[in-house]
Amino acid sequence: MSSKDWIEKDYYAALGVPKAAPADEIKKAYRRLARESHPDHNPGDARAEERFKAVSEAYAVLGDDAKRREYDEMRSLFSSGAFRRGTRQSGQPGGVPFDVSDLFGGAQAAGGRFGGGNISDLFSSVFSGGGGGAPGPARGRDIETEVALDFDDAVHGVTLPLSLRAPGVCDTCHGDGAKPGTVPRTCPVCHGAGATNRNQGAFSFSEPCRNCQGVGTVVDEKCPECHGTGGVTKTRTLNVRFPAGVADGQRIRLAGRGEPGERGGSAGDLFVHVKVRPDEVFGRTGDDLTLTVPITFAEAVLGTDLRVPTLDGPVTLRVPPGTPSGRILRARGKGVSRRDGQTGDLLVTLDVVVPARISDQARAALETFAEQTPPAAREHLDARVRRFG
Fold first, then answer.
1. How far apart are the C-alpha atoms of 183 and 217, rounded to whole Å?
2. pLDDT (tens digit per residue) in 106-141
3. CATH 2.60.260.20 segments of the chain
4. CATH topology of domain 139-278
5. Which CATH class, in words, describes the domain spanning 283-387?
6. Model pTM score
C-alpha cells in the first residue's frame, strides 16, 4: 500500500472497530471478517474478494503495533492541518495552500510490484532537504490462516499439508515481471535509482520515479501470467509441523512463508492459528489431561483397583476405602509433553453414582448397612435448625 493510502483509508472502519480498540479486539474482528469474505468461501464473488483484500490491508497496518502508531500519527497530523503552509488565517490575505496531492505525486503507483511503502519513507522524503534516493527493500506482509487439529494430534504432534491461496512470486517470470526470454531494462528517467528529486517552494522532495514506479527498471514486454506485476495469487501447499503439546488458540509462526517482499525485500511470515477439536473422553488444563470416572457406592466404601484409559494405553489406579465423590487421583507423567521434555499428569475425578432403582435384596442389604452405620455428623446444622423451631 502507498503512503497516500494511510491518509485516505480508514482502516478502523474497514475492520469495524473504534480507534481505541485493543489489539485483541482488532485481531478478533479481522479473523471474523477474513473468514466471512475469504475467496475460498465465496468463489466467483468479486465483492467478497475486494472486501477480503481491504480487511487484510487494514490488519496489516493495525495488527502491527509500530505501523499502527505511525498510521495514527500520520492521520492526526493531516487532520490537524500540520502539513498546510502559509494558509490564510483570520481572514488575512496571502499564503499558498499546501496540496496533499503534491506531497504524494506519483507515489500512489510507486509501491513496487505488490504495493507497499511506509510512512517513514514519506517523512524522510518531505524533510530530507533534497536528499533521499530509491525506496529500499520492503518486507512482504504477514498472512494468517487457521487449522483445526484432532485432540490426539495436538497432544502428540503432527505434520500436516496446508493449502493456502495467497499472493506469491510468479512462477513464469520469477518475480521480475518480464516476459520469458526478456529482461527489464534500467529506467532512463531515474537511471536505476528509483527516485527523482524536485523542488516546491521551501521544500525539496525526493519521490519515487513516476516512469518506473520506484522500481528502477522498466518492463517493455510484460509477463503474460502476472501482467508485469511479478506476483500472482496462487494456491500453495506447505507441510507444517505442529509440535507435541500445541494448545487450542496457539499461533505457529513460519518465518518467510508470507507474502513476497518488494525490491528484493524479505518475505513476510505465515501465522497459523490452531484450533483443537474437543475429545470425547479427555479434557485438558494446561499440560494436564482430565478425566471423570464413575464408581459405585460399594467401590467408594470398600475401595477398588480402577483401570482407566490414557492416550498411551490403560493404567491401574488404586481407589482407597472410604473415598468420597469428587476426589481426584493423579497418574503422573500421563499428560501432555512439555517443550522441556517433561510431561503433565492425568487427573482422574471420581464420581460416585447413586442408582435410581435397586433390587429388593440390595435394598435389604442397604437397610442393614444403615442400621449398623452411625449417622453423618450434622450437629452444626441441627443447631441452626433448632433456632427456627
1. 10
2. 444 334 434 444 544 555 444 444 444 445 567 888
3. 139-278, 283-387
4. HSP40/DNAj peptide-binding domain (2.60.260)
5. mainly beta
6. 0.52
